[in-house]
Amino acid sequence: THKNDYIYINESKSATELKENGITLNLKLKDNLVSYILDFINNKEFQFNRNQKKLIKFSDRNKYNDLYILNYMNPHLDNEVISNILHNEKLIYTIKNYLKVEPILEWSQIYWSLPFKDKKGETLIPPNNEYGYHYDIDGFKFLKVFFYLTDVTSYSGPHVFIEKSGDKTLYKALNRRIDEEEVKKKFGEKKLIITGKKGTGFIEDTSFYHKGTSPNYERGVLSCLYNIS
């Protein structure tokens, strides 16, 4: 496969959706590339629960009870295929259309969420507000791209995006994190719950409110940040 065929994307439709909604779901990674990425990471070391000093091999992840998230930073620097995916011409064109300048790929990561359970096997909510609603402050104007590396259903930690929440209001300036009740009160039912088969991708302006959700099954994501400076 030629590197510019790694992703299915309709640039003009995606650019329009991004402009209107701050998000486009019009993106898909080819199946064989998902398998390739999963093979590549199997023996890689990941941060344990966001602890940069504690690393474990990806293939050992099921040996730990207290593990809820694994991170591997900047896989595009270690792997040419991942780099080609994130520098795909059509993808860059779409992002540039939104940012109005040549985008800079600031970082990439693969993160892997796992069900967090107590010793009896009961599901717990992970610490540090891991799955709360928030918006990102990664620069003046930026976009994130996400590709699911596992099938994601409503039970396996789908990403949730709050539509119409991109305005730079005083309320927002004072409330970087909000709870479910506040979302309902402020934005009603403007919730986009993103499920899909592995390879499903989306481009998102994460200065809108969004969150991950606590999974009942493992969920893997390749994500990256494009910035204007």
Topology overview:
Blueprint: E1 7-9, H1 11-21, E2 23-29, H2 31-41, E3 45-48, E4 51-57, E5 69-73, H3 80-86, H4 89-99, E6 104-113, E7 133-134, E8 142-148, E9 159-162, H5 170-174, E10 177-178, H6 180-187, E11 191-194, E12 200-204, E13 210-211, E14 219-227
Antiparallel strand pairs: 1-2, 2-12, 3-4, 3-5, 5-6, 6-14, 7-10, 8-12, 8-14, 9-11, 9-13
| Count of distinct strands | 14
User: Which descriptor suits the 3D outline?
Assistant: globular
- In terms of DSSP E residues, the strand content is 25-35%
Q: From the alpha carbons, calculate the radius of gyration and give it in angstroms.
A: 17 Å
**What proportion of the residues is helical, as a percent range?**
10-25%
Total of helices: 6
Order of helices and strands: EHEHEEEHHEEEEHEHEEEE
- Helix/strand-derived class? alpha+beta
State the strand order across the main sheet: 1-2-12-8-14-6-5-3-4
Spatial separation of the terminal alpha carbons:
32 Å
Main sheet makeup: 9 strands, antiparallel
Low-confidence runs: none
Overall mean pLDDT: 91
